[in-house]
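Problem: given the chain below (225 residues), write out its structure.
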Amino acid sequence: MNSPLLQVRNLTHSFLEGDEKVHALRGVSFEANKGEVTSIIGPSGCGKSTLMYLLGLLEQPETGDILINNKSISRLSDLQRTRIRNERIGFIFQFHFLIKELSARENVALPAIKKGDNSREALKRADQILNQLGLGKKLDRFANKLSGGEQQRVAIARALINSPSIILADEPTGNLDTANSEIVFNLLQTLSRKQNLAVILVTHNNQLAKRCDKFITMNDGLILS
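Solution.
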């Protein structure tokens, strides 16, 4: 039985929208296991983006806690949260945010180089990951010369470069056609199992969501199932 890597306990969070206080999260709790993909689905405005923002340690929740390997991380200092974010969490977005002036391998190596790793070693690791994702023949191709599906695979490689234990994937197939959506989803599922990652997948695609190991439905800041 897989052990919980990420635990979310009774998170609440709100923000001001004009003069109105919006309660984005109203007590969200769930667990994500190593080697599994956990999908989160719900309508726009239900709190999914706020939840991902907090899981990425970009802000502290008003109440509640986030734990990785049973250690509380949500109340750490900004510097400590930044270190954990760089070392333990990989991000994949709907819009891949690749730098078009850089090659595929340079885009992938960038987070490792920014972390302080040797450039040559970072590029070597980038090449290895891109080869694993079927992009070995396009290492030196500029990002804007890749197809949409290829760009998203480069974004996945970039998320993996620092060997994270958690992948936060926010609508990673949102801009892809059916065939490429299937490729990206299968990659995430395979990577979660082979590398023992906890993958949190936010999606509007019900079919993909229901194929995940866990399926969470959100609405109005609450988890319904």
